[in-house]
Description:
Blueprint: H1 6-9, H2 33-36, H3 40-49, H4 64-79
Amino acid sequence: YDIYCGLCHGDQGKGDGRIAAKMASKPRNLIGDDAKAYTDGRIFYAITAGKGVMGSYASQITDANRRWAVVNYVRTLQRQTK
């Protein structure tokens, strides 16, 4: 997460990463209620195939188990913001 996701989505998943302010289309807030409603599979698919202006990260995070670990990390961030 820290290497590939945090730059845009932010350390806490709020969509306020270091480069988010420079982006024309702002990154999704991963800890918002809408993102909390996503299935794990939807998050995994977004990492694997991309979503909106976010491209696929399958070639950077080649091991599917590591992509699932990112899904679990996002869920951990979401639980911290109840």
